[in-house]
């Protein structure tokens, strides 16, 4: 028995060592399989004295369950952008059913949200910025973003055609569907008083597409930067930013308990500033949420030219981050067309990994089980 345990540990260490020492290579497509599991997280129940330096606190409620394909990222998600970055187009699509490379079991995609910088078109889009009142335990509140994506506006405003974020600057994209009143049993849960509160983008089977640039930062580096020349595009459970994206108290967000994050294209550190990684921050078979489930391949960051890319969550637990000049942003995306985009990326330009299975089952009759059908 002891020998078996030691053998297992040695084998695991050998795998970890081989991964750590393997050459990390560039790819055009990063694929994850077996995405989704049954698990729990703790939603925020109460925000108290949020303006007080000494009494600012948050309480969490009892755990809630999620389950099924792509869970917990089958819930509503907000889209987050960090500079240096300029956004030219964004589109969100959903499909009743889509399985990669399986035309017979798939249906076409319908565009549910759209932004075009050049034509100044915005459909089902709300741009928000963390430029509101500051709180000792919550940080800055969400407000409507101005056309520059950085400063505050008095109402929903479309990003300008020449929008550009610098290092550390961020904005968030939500839908234009307003949340009901804040409350634990309400559709958007508990959120910060006075913010413009909107739903994110929901559904098990969904796709986010982007046309953008990530130019090299021109400002001189200094200690004032936290993410110097480290752009990113990522997704969060839409509850997170409505309470606090960067809290000093982990009870002020459901993030720490695993409600869900997926990094589509992210520069992870300053030594790999032209390597875009994809990472799951869920508890699917891991214990360190901060490190997450990383791809050991990267997509190259083009600092000179426009990039087109996105992420697709299919109906069978496949998640694919990809770059392709063949991407279009039409109101519908035929099954054959998106499969053609994905299949045109050569096998040797695809990195694939399988997420671990989790042997936990959500209670079938719980009133607090979340999953989008």
From TrEMBL:
What processes in GO biological process is this protein linked to? cell wall organization
Q: What is the lineage of its organism?
A: Eukaryota, Fungi, Dikarya, Ascomycota, Saccharomycotina
| EC top class named in words | hydrolase
Cell wall protein YJL171C/Tos1 N-terminal domain location is 29-94
Q: Name one Pfam family in it.
A: YJL171C_Tos1_N
In this protein, which residues make up the domain named Cell wall protein YJL171C/Tos1 C-terminal?
Answer: 108-339
Molecular function per GO: glucan endo-1,3-beta-D-glucosidase activity
UniProt record similarity statement: Belongs to the PGA52 family.
Highest taxon of source? Eukaryota
Catalysed reaction, written as an equation: Hydrolysis of (1->3)-beta-D-glucosidic linkages in (1->3)-beta-D-glucans
Q: Identify the EC number(s).
A: 3.2.1.39
- UniProt name for this protein: glucan endo-1,3-beta-D-glucosidase
Q: Does the keyword Cytoplasm apply?
A: no
Q: Which UniProt keywords apply?
A: Cell wall biogenesis/degradation, Glycosidase, Hydrolase, Signal
Q: Which Gene Ontology cellular-component terms appear in the entry?
A: fungal-type cell wall
**Which segment of the chain is annotated as a signal peptide?**
1-22
């Amino acid at each position: 028995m002891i020998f078996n345990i030691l053998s297992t540990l040695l084998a695991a260490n050998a795998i970890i060592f081989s991964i750590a020492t393997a050459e990390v290579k560039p790819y055009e497509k990063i694929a994850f399989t077996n995405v989704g599991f049954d698990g729990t997280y703790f939603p925020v129940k109460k925000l108290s004295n949020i303006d007080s330096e000494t009494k600012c606190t948050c309480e969490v409620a009892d755990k809630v369950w999620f389950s099924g394909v792509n869970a917990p990222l089958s819930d509503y998600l907000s889209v987050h952008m960090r500079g240096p970055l300029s956004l030219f187009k964004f589109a969100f699509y959903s499909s009743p059913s889509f399985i990669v490379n399986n035309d017979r079991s798939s249906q076409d995609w319908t565009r549910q949200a759209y932004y075009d910088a050049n034509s100044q078109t915005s459909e089902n889009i709300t741009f928000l910025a963390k430029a509101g009142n500051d709180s000792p335990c919550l940080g800055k509140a969400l407000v409507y973003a101005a056309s520059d994506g950085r400063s505050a506006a008095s109402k929903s405003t479309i990003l300008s055609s020449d929008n550009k974020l610098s290092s550390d600057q961020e904005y968030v994209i939500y839908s234009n569907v307003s949340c009901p009143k804040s409350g634990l049993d309400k559709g958007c849960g508990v959120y910060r008083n006075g913010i413009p509160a909107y739903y994110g983008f929901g559904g098990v089977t969904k796709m986010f597409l982007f046309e953008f640039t990530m130019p090299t930062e021109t400002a001189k580096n200094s200690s004032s930067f936290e993410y110097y020349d480290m752009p990113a595009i990522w997704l969060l459970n839409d509850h997170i930013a409505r309470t606090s994206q960067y809290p000093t108290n982990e009870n002020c967000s459901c993030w720490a308990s695993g409600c869900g994050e997926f990094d589509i294209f992210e520069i992870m550190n300053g030594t790999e500033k032209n390597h875009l990684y994809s990472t799951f921050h869920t508890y699917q078979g891991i214990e360190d949420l901060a490190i997450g489930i990383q791809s050991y391949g990267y997509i190259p960051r083009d600092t000179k030219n426009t990039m087109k890319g996105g992420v697709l969550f299919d109906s069978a637990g496949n998640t694919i981050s990809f770059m392709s000049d063949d991407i279009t942003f039409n109101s519908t995306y035929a099954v054959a067309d998106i499969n053609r985009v994905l299949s045109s990326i050569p096998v040797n330009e695809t990195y694939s990994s399988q997420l671990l299975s989790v042997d936990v089952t959500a209670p079938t009759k719980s009133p607090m089980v979340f999953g989008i059908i």
